[in-house]
Amino acid sequence: MLLTKQYILLIISIILLFFSVPSQASSENRDSTKLSEDEMLTLFVSIEPQAYFVERIGGKMVDVHVLVPPGKSPATYAPTPSQMLKLTEAKLFFTIGVPFEKALMPKIKKITGGLEIVDTTKGIELMPFHISESSHGHHEESDAKEKEQSSEHQNAEDEKSEDEHHHTDALDPHIWMNPLLVKIQAATILDALLKYAPEHKAQLSQNFNKFMDDLDKLHLKIKDALAPLEGETIFVYHPVFGYFAREYGLKQLAVERGGKSPRGKELLNFITEAKNNNVHVIFVQPQFDQNTANKIATAIKGVVVPLDPLARNYIENLENMASTIKNSLRN
């Protein structure tokens, strides 16, 4: 009898132990803010420069995926089904305010309940496009016509995302074009990574501080390089240089207006304005059609010079960009 009783207790203990194991595992799985040893943090960013920022801070701890591939524009891009599937496996998505993110958010929330979305524009005062695009104040059009076009823009119900992106009252999302603003973005990234890997605080902080030093050095290099050009105008196709121009004493004059290439009289106005400003160089991003820029360049006997604001190696790219602008405007 005693043996039978002990046997029954043993069986019950084994059963209880069996059912307690999955329960404990489930508890650990739910604790999504901690990484296991040697586990990489899978995360997404919108554009290539962000991947550079995250990798500089996270190092080998992060597995970064970029939604917008090289050659595509973040103004109109739509993620592929495979990218959406991969998003379900990620823990973090660092947004930066580019247009396609707005349409993407509802889809993400439907399929990825556990994905944490981190807004890296936090702490940054965004600049309206009507300020960043100095061309808005230079076109030879009356104020009445300007207001009429703006009103039509607001009342249109079927505007494309690109048009919304460049509405007069829209905010300029190109905050990565100013190294000092990248420092603010980097601080937001560091905070998010520390949440998932607090045990790596020393290494993450060291990486962060080194990145801050490099950004400060980059800022000073660009400032020194462009100081002789203060007050001059850079003629660009797409208005991506607003924050860059404001920080380094330049003016940005954009070919695009409301997200569209100029035609007819407006195109003639651009050509006239370029001639009046003694413009001989038009800076064009590879993500956009160059036909209009080439027409204007031909009319002003100038040249089209490529600049890629979406290149992954941010430090090297921005330094080269400043050098290209300096050499192009001085020649």
- Which geometry do the CA atoms define? globular
Mean pLDDT equals 81
Strand content: 5-15%
Helix content: 40-55%
The strand count comes to 8
CATH uppermost class of the largest domain: Alpha Beta
Work out the radius of gyration: 26 Å
- Indicate the CATH topology of the largest domain: Rossmann fold
Distance between the termini: 103 Å
Strand order of the largest sheet: 2-1-3-4
- List the secondary-structure elements in sequence, H or E: HEHEHEHEHHHHHEHEHEHEH
Low-confidence stretches: 1-31, 134-168
Q: Supply the CATH superfamily name of the largest domain.
A: Nitrogenase molybdenum iron protein domain
Major sheet: 4 strands, parallel
Determine the structural class based on helices, strands and strand pairing: alpha/beta
- CATH architecture title of the largest domain: 3-Layer(aba) Sandwich
Number of domains: 2
Count up the helices: 13
GO molecular function, one term: metal ion binding
Signal peptide: 1-25
Region (Disordered): 133-167
Protein name: ABC-type zinc transport system, periplasmic binding protein
